Amino acid sequence: MATQGFLARVAGKTQQIFAIATSAGAADAGKIPALDSAGRIDTSMMPVGIGANTTQATASEAIGAGKFINYWDNAGVFSMRLADNSNGRQADGYVTAAVASGAVGTGYPLDGTNAQLTGLTVGTRYWLGTAGGVTPTPLDEADAGNANKISQYLGVAKSTTELVTDDQGHVVL
After folding, report:
1. Rounded CA gap, 161 and 139, in Å?
2. pTM score, whole prediction
3. pLDDT of 7-28, one tens digit each?
4. How many CA atoms lie less than 13 Å away from 60 in the CB half-sphere?
5. Secondary structure class of 104 (helix, strand, coil)
């Protein structure tokens, strides 16, 4: 994307100046910002404390974009892994970009919109499934085979790719 520029007089000469899309901090003081490819101001230009509500964590396994994650203590390292209703890993949030095992990734809290999913049905309610996925069918609490599994409502589909999430907590069956 080409950044827009303007002409300015600098030290008596006409010079073309370009807006910046990201900030390196104090060195960029006084410069004019440009919007990014999504039409937004980059978070590097925002004041401390302003920006997306996210959590950085090390992935203890490969995590695909749109997967629901569980935060945990991995030998003293705050980490993320795939949430899973079958093994006691409740969903604490989700990722919007894939994270390689051992890499630091960005987790988004529930109560937002996960727009990295596929195959959803508009208006359908979804619960936590296995391997960071979702299922339109809640676990049957009367089924003895579901003992010690996680029952967690995650939200409702806004489109085939977007789930408006809700943080209602989870229940161990």
Report:
1. 23
2. 0.78
3. 989 899 999 988 888 888 888 8
4. 15
5. strand
